[in-house]
Each structure stands twice: as structure tokens, then as C-alpha cells.
Amino acid sequence: MTISGVALLALCTLLGQVLGELLGVQLGVKANVGGVGIAMILLIAARVWLTDRKLWTAGVNQGVMLWASLYIPIVIAMAAQQDVAAAVSGGPMVLIGGICVVCLCFAMVALIGRMSGRSETMDEIEARERLASITEQADTA
């Protein structure tokens, strides 16, 4: 049922907002800290839990996807705007912290990329498949 998916999304959103507010209070910040992210993690966990128990139906999926395509991008944009406003008013330490986190993420992506070794690009895969197809056609002719 579509209404079940909408209810699940609403429940995850409300829980995420409450937990984000509590986290903000614990950290001494006058803002919701990660409420949208927590809501998304709860929704992912709920989907895994429901799928394992064969309770994730097409109707539930439709309800979640309906609001996911409309609501979640708007909430994320609003939360990002608040985060930027809080960072700018928070002074240079917040901006330095944000820049450090972004640099750390870039470094981790590079490190994980190097650790995983070389993998084929889509261009290489397509070229190999075309060559195999041409070779196969030449063998049959």
C-alpha cells in the first residue's frame, strides 16, 4: 500500500529530526545536527529490515519513491542552506573544520582508489566487447 510507504517515510523523517535536535543539544549547538542524514539512514535500515522479512511491497516502494522524488531533495537543500548559514556565522574555526573534512574525504577517496588496484573503464570494456564481436563475426564468415 502506498500509504504505508508514506507513513514509513514520515516516521523516519520525524525520528531523524528528533534525534538531530537531541544531538545538537548534546553538542551544545543551537541547531539540528544531521537530522536529515539520520532520517535517510533510518529509511535505509527500515528498507533492509522490511525486505529481509518480505514486507517491502511494491506499494510501500511507491509511497517512499513518491515523496523521495519530491520531498527529500527539498529538505536536503533547506538543510544545506542552514548549515552554510551556521558555518558562516560560526566564525573561522567552523570553516577551517569544514575545509579539513573535505580535504580528508578527497584524500581517502584517492587512498581507497589506489588500494583497490586498476579496473577497466567503460570505454575499455566496450572496446573489448566490440573486438570480440568483430572476431566472432569474422570466424563465422
Automatic annotation (TrEMBL):
One short Pfam name that applies is: MadL
Keyword set includes Metal-binding? no
Q: Does the keyword Transmembrane helix apply?
A: yes
Query: Which residues, by range, are in coiled-coil regions?
Result: none
Q: Which UniProt keywords apply?
A: Membrane, Transmembrane, Transmembrane helix
Superkingdom field: Bacteria
Q: Which NCBIfam families match?
A: malonate_madL
Protein's recorded name: Malonate carrier protein
| UniProt organism field | Sphingomonas psychrolutea
